[in-house]
Amino acid sequence: MISQTKLAFSEKDELKKIKILKELKGVQIPTASAILSAVNPEIYPIIDERCLQSLTDLGMIKWKTITENNWIEYLNIIRVLSRENNKTAREIEKGLFAYNRINLDKEYTNLYK
């Protein structure tokens, strides 16, 4: 595992990087994005269904499935938003998650009330 992650972190090509991480047992794109984000939240967001719903609602994407090519598109969108708003990729992703909770999650019930 260590050599696989080391290889992924040394890879410059983002598509190859995600493919290398997906070779780890049980790792798909969302988990791979979390690994990348844990190591470098400045440039790596976590890809999440809620974030995708937010981007769809904002008219920024039209796809709903997480594929390698869609990961690259998501990564590019988040990085542009990151630069434009002087925030880290992780902060942008958290903002999209919050947007979803506030604006799109009508079924949410606070279990702690």
Detailed description of the structure:
The chain has 113 residues and is mostly helical. It is built from 6 helices and no strands. It has helices at 2-10, 14-22, 29-39, 49-57, 68-85, 89-104. Helix 1 (2-10) packs antiparallel against helix 2, helix 4 (49-57) crosses helix 6 (89-104) and helix 5 (68-85) crosses helix 6 (89-104). The longest helix is centred in the last third of the chain and has 18 residues, at 68-85.
Can I get a quick summary?
The protein is an all-alpha fold. The chain contains six helices and no strands. The longest helix has 18 residues.
Query: Count the helices. How many?
Result: 6
Give the rounded overall mean pLDDT. 92
Q: How many angstroms separate the termini?
A: 42 Å
Low-confidence stretches: none
Task: Draw up the topology in text.
Elements (H helix, E strand, L loop, with lengths): L1 H9 L3 H9 L6 H11 L9 H9 L10 H18 L3 H16 L9
Helix pairs in contact: 1-2, 2-5, 4-6, 5-6
